[in-house]
Amino acid sequence: MGIMQNTDGYRPGEECSHCKGRCCREKGCSLAPSDLERAIKKRGLTGNKREKILSFLQEDGNLYAIDRFHLEGKEIYYMRIRHHAYTFVGEDAIGICAALTAAGCILSEEDRPKGGRYLESRPDGHCIQHYGADEMAEDWLPYQESLSSIYWEYFQKFKEDGTFDKCDEEYFRFLRTFREGSVF
To answer: What highest taxon heads this organism's lineage (predicted)?
Structure first.
C-alpha cells in the first residue's frame, strides 16, 4: 500500500510495479497550480499568467495539457500530464500518460504532479485518488480565464487544421505497437 510521505502525498507502492501503471494507462496525472508555478519558475518564463502558461505548453517536449471537467453544472479547466501522441489541448478523454515508460514514470517523485503524488496505491489494485474534483476546482479557480481562453483558441485551431485527427491516427499507431508488446 502507498505510504504517506509527510503532507505531500504518497510514495508509489509495490503494487505500481506489479500492475505496470494501470492508472497511468487511463489518464495523465492532474497538476495543482503549485506544480505549474514551480515549473514556470524553473524555466524562467515571463509575461502575464496566460502568456507564461502558453509558453510552458508550447515548449518542445511538453508533457502537459489543459483539460476540463464538469462539477455542479460548471466547467472547470485544469492541467494534467498529456496523453501519448496528443497536444496540449486535452480533447482526448482517455489515454496513456506521456510520462509512462516501460521503466515506470519518467518524472522523479518530487517532479510528479499532485494527482500522482496523492494517488494511494492499494494491494487490491483499487487505488485511491486523494486529489479530487472539489479540491481541484477550488485550486484552479484563479486560472479559469487563462486556461479556458487557451483551450478554446487552440481547440478551434487544432480542429480546423486537422491536428486532432493526426493525433488520433498517431495514438492508434502507438496502441497497435503497445498491444504487440514493442512498447512497454
So the answer is: Bacteria
Which helix (H) or strand (E) is 76 found in, with range? Answer: strand 74-81
At 6 the pLDDT is 44
Question: In the prediction, which pLDDT does 141 show?
Answer: 98
Closest CA to 143 of 68, 55, 62: 68
* Mean pLDDT confidence for 123-135: 89
Cα 11 to its chain centre, rounded Å, is 18
Cβ neighbours around 86 below 10 Å, total: 22
Q: How far apart are CA 74 and CA 30, in angstroms?
A: 18
* pTM assigned to the model: 0.86
What residue has cell string 521503466?
A: 103
Distances (CA, A) of 13 to 20, 106, 117: 11, 16, 11
| Cα–Cα distance, 146 to 109 (Å, whole number) | 28
- Check residue 179 and give left, alpha or beta (phi > 0: left; psi -120 to 50: alpha): alpha
Q: Are 100 and 17 spatial neighbours (Cβ–Cβ below 8 Å)? A: no
